[in-house]
Specification:
GO terms for molecular function: microtubule binding. It is built from two helices and no strands. By secondary structure, it is mainly alpha-helical.
């Protein structure tokens, strides 16, 4: 019985370590997606500013075709930004769901190990009473 108890404590410690690791991975993943979202916004802002400047220059030169092309490019940049943001949101949802599922599995494993430990202790008490 003692060996089983030691194994149970070891297993519980491993499950707890896995849970801490899972929490850390989830925080890292969230931080990475946040950085990706920020970089994407900054890139789009810079592209839009450049295209806006070019559009103004073309309007000053009375080049309506060029200005129209720049407006079209600005629209394209905005659509790409929205698409990338939707992809990031989708990834966040997937990662969040997978994290919750792994966390739940680890918690269930911990509960199973705790029940095994309790059962082993009860068996030990019963053995001591009968033996």
């Amino acid at each position: 019985y003692g060996g089983s108890s030691t194994f149970c404590h070891f297993s519980l410690a491993m499950v707890e370590q896995c849970l801490r690791g899972e929490e850390l991975r989830a925080r890292h993943q969230a931080a990475l997606l946040k950085l990706r979202r920020k970089a994407l916004r900054e890139k789009a802002r810079a592209e839009l500013a450049w295209l806006g400047h070019q559009k103004c220059c073309l309007e000053n030169l009375q080049d309506s075709k060029g200005a129209s092309a720049m407006a079209s490019e600005q629209h394209k940049v905005l659509m790409e930004l929205k698409q990338e943001q939707a992809e990031i949101q989708h990834l966040q949802n997937i990662y969040r769901a997978a994290h919750q599922e792994r966390k739940l599995l680890l918690k269930q494993q911990r509960e199973i190990l705790m029940m095994r430990h309790s059962t082993a202790q009860l068996q030990k008490k019963l053995h001591n009473l009968t033996g």
